[in-house]
Design goal:
The chain is 39% helix and 26% strand. It has 269 residues and is α/β, with parallel strands linked by helices. The strands form 2 sheets. Strands 1, 5, 6, 7, 8, 9, 10, 11 and 12 form a 9-stranded mixed sheet that branches. A 3-stranded antiparallel sheet has the order 2-3-4.
């Protein structure tokens, strides 16, 4: 008998495949990549990307008769370089910033929203009200992650900005006192804290530092840019909007079921 987590994932992938076949996704194949550690939007599940952005992209491209080949999980910064070079056609979803606009076209409407928050140690005295409260602090963020050009530039100019390859590395540095705070998406941060068993050592500060939409993005080097109006028309359909509204809660539940607190826990020392 398959383990529960593998069985759940197989059900999800089988449903996506069946939906694509039913809707006639028999045309050219496009390649896509995404963030490997941003649940519930996208994450690495047993060597495959899954999540809200993955499901939304598969559904949209299938609806316009195209196959979407989602690449295996790769570092986020590498995914962005692959979109820039045209090695892949699609970034499953991400913030808009000037650098990304240079090499990708944003597909309207957004497939989700990302609320950036601060994770700190439980004993932290930091009170956050505005970006100015971060001045001079040691702030960690994932390599290649962006929460918009303005905020990225502010961190680079006014804080001791540090990047790490993964959220787990950032949390380790925070626990060791090498960072004052970590900036991450709210839901991804909540899931990471829970999955690593660090609820008594770490907390998310009230409020948010950035709130912005997440867009599917097509490389300007893709041969299939002409399909963007069709994708937009599909994403704006009432039935699709209703479907999309239920996906975040569904994938949050799935992630929690597939990722019980790690053993041994990161915070058990």
């Amino acid at each position: 008998m398959l383990p529960c987590r593998s069985f759940l994932l197989l059900l999800c992938l089988s449903a996506a495949s069946a939906w694509a076949q039913h809707n006639g996704a028999t045309g050219p194949t496009l390649r896509a990549c995404g963030h490997p550690a941003a649940p519930p939007m996208s994450w690495d599940q047993d060597g495959q990307l899954t999540g809200v952005c993955v499901a939304a992209a598969r559904r949209a491209f299938a609806a316009v008769g195209l196959r979407l080949q989602v690449e295996g999980p790769t570092p986020w910064a590498r995914c962005l370089r692959m979109v820039e070079s045209g090695e892949v056609d699609v970034n499953l979803c991400g913030f808009v910033n000037d650098k990304r606009l240079e090499h990708a076209v944003m597909v309207e409407p957004p497939v989700g929203h990302n609320e950036a928050v601060l994770i700190v140690r439980r004993d932290s005295a930091l009170v956050y009200k505005s970006w100015a409260d971060l001045n001079g602090l040691r702030i960690g963020m994932g390599r290649g992650v962006s929460f918009g050009e303005e905020f990225d530039s502010y961190l680079a100019q006014n804080t001791q900005f540090d990047t790490a390859l993964s959220e787990a590395h950032n949390l380790q540095k925070l626990l060791l006192g090498r960072l004052d705070a970590v900036v991450t998406a709210r839901h991804a941060g909540q899931q990471q804290i829970r999955a690593t068993g660090c609820e008594t050592q770490l907390r998310i500060l009230p409020g948010k530092v950035v709130d912005g939409p997440l867009f599917m993005q097509m490389s300007k080097r893709s041969k299939h840019l002409s399909v963007i109006p069709q994708l937009t028309a599909f994403l704006k359909q009432p039935a699709q909007i209703e479907w999309a509204q239920g996906q975040q809660a569904r994938f949050e539940t799935m992630y929690a079921q597939l990722h019980p607190p790690a053993q041994p826990k990161l915070c058990e020392r």
